[in-house]
Write a structure and sequence with these properties.
By secondary structure, this protein is an alpha/beta fold. Helix content is about 25%, strand content about 15%. It has 6 helices and 5 strands. A 5-stranded parallel beta sheet has the order 1-5-4-2-3, sandwiched between helices. The protein is globular and about 35 Å long.
């Protein structure tokens, strides 16, 4: 069964408690985009988020009404799509958010914001990219793979990785941005992302391309 495109409003049908987002990290917090210059070494025991460089210039405005607490934001839609066979086998709900290839990363960022608004903890979320690395991942890798993967193991925040990275471990929620990459690579990456998602898999990209790569047709 093909995945049905949905508007970017995250909903989950998987029961279970939701954690409160870590202090200092909400949907209104600008995404971790690297700034110029070297990163200062964090003190031992400091959370990974404190080591991330801030985004230069004015802060990115939060999506939705300014200053509105999560309780005042519109409620999520009821599910309108059903998961494909692979999603059913993995036990994760699948949602497809339509986006052009050059806008898939932005759609994934919006999905992360909505997940945080819904009560998901940052440490619950893994973001995978099929094309260029997320700017944060590229920046952190410049300091060495050991430090980069240590932040995944610390599980203090949202983690960004390449969709083909075998060392990327599963989390309750996996967001995939189909922002490029050859079809063979993406065709392997999508099923792998399904196995990593414990409760929810969000795929941001072109619906026809994604369904074709998954081997399903309308």
């Amino acid at each position: 069964m093909p995945l049905i495109p949905e508007e970017p409003q995250i909903h989950e049908s998987v029961p279970g408690p939701r954690a409160t987002p870590a202090a200092g990290r909400t949907a209104s917090t600008p995404r971790p985009v690297p700034g110029p210059g070297p990163r200062p070494a964090p003190p031992r025991g400091a959370p990974a988020a404190s080591a991330r460089p801030g985004k230069p210039g004015p802060a990115t405005p939060s999506r939705g009404p300014a200053g509105a607490p999560p309780a005042q934001r519109p409620g999520p839609k009821q599910p309108t799509a059903t998961a494909g066979a692979a999603g059913a086998a993995s036990g994760a709900q699948i949602q497809l958010i339509p986006a052009p290839q050059n806008g898939a990363l932005d759609a994934a960022e919006e999905a992360v914001d909505l997940l945080l608004d819904s009560g998901r903890a940052p440490s619950d979320i893994l973001v995978l990219t099929t094309g260029e690395l997320h700017p944060w991942a590229a920046h952190e890798l410049s300091f060495g793979e050991a430090a980069y993967w240590a932040q995944q193991d610390a599980a203090d925040d949202v983690f960004y990785a390449d969709a083909t990275a075998e060392r990327a471990t599963g989390r309750p929620v996996v967001v995939v941005a189909d922002n490029g990459g050859d079809e063979q690579t993406v065709a392997r990456a999508l099923p792998a992302a399904m196995t990593r998602a414990g409760a929810l898999l969000v795929v941001c990209g072109d619906p026809e391309r994604i369904n074709a790569l998954l081997g399903v047709h309308a």
